[in-house]
Design a protein that fits this description.
The structure is a single chain. 11% of the residues are buried. By secondary structure, the chain is mostly helical. It contains seven helices and no strands. It starts with a helix and ends with a helix. Helix 1 (3-21) packs across helix 2 and helix 3 packs antiparallel against helix 5.
């Protein structure tokens, strides 16, 4: 496949995602969301990214059965990447927080969003290791 065809396919995939699978992105790109709506989406995305880094991903690693070394390797490499390779200020939650602050969201609002959001995933902290829990 030529580079031109690959880029065309990539553009089509992105267009499909924006139009059909993530209509909120389409509305943002088209300028159809007000600033308060954009801020609400950004706050929630920050809460999700931070929950993913702080709770979901470490729990997935913990939920891997003892002998599932390939899965453990995958989740640990994903955790390192999400943490920005442990470079200060490079983890994805920090990057998202910087973006949110740049569009006028106060850091205290981000913290409130996270504190209200992460408890939805509290049950994952109590599950015993198993393949079913690991892939959920």
């Amino acid at each position: 496949m030529s580079t031109t065809n690959w880029l065309r396919d990539l553009d089509a995939t992105i267009d499909n995602l924006v139009s059909n699978e993530a209509p909120i992105l389409s509305r943002i790109v088209q300028g159809k969301l007000g600033s308060h709506e954009v801020q609400a989406v950004a706050r929630r995305h920050y809460a999700e990214v931070r929950t993913f880094i702080d709770i979901k991903l470490p729990s997935r690693l913990r939920l891997c059965p003892h002998d599932e070394s390939r899965a453990k390797s995958y989740f640990s490499s994903l955790y390192i990447e999400e943490q920005g390779n442990f470079v200060p200020g490079a983890n994805h939650a920090h990057i998202m927080a910087d973006f949110c602050i740049s569009i006028g969201i106060e850091s205290s609002a981000l913290e409130r969003e996270f504190e209200g959001y992460w408890p939805n995933y509290r049950s994952i902290l109590l599950e015993p290791p198993s393949i079913g829990a690991m892939v959920r």
